[in-house]
Known about the structure:
mainly beta
Amino acid sequence: MPIYEYECGSCGRTFELLVSRSKATSNPPCEHCGSEETERIMSGFFGRSSSGGGDTASVGSSCAGCTASSCAGCVR
Length: 76
Ligand SMILES: [Zn+2]
């Protein structure tokens, strides 16, 4: 289950919550003040999948002979 971060519109504080997929659309009450004016914040791991994947993971580790981001241009 993903951990979502919420920001409270009433007290302005943030809190993290483990949310099952069926509850992801409804806002939980703020754990600081109990207000339900909470808004989900997109935290780090969300943006990672939109970049296409794999282009940064292979940097540096797959080819010691060149500094290119992939070994397509490195003939060995
Ligand atoms: Zn609050």
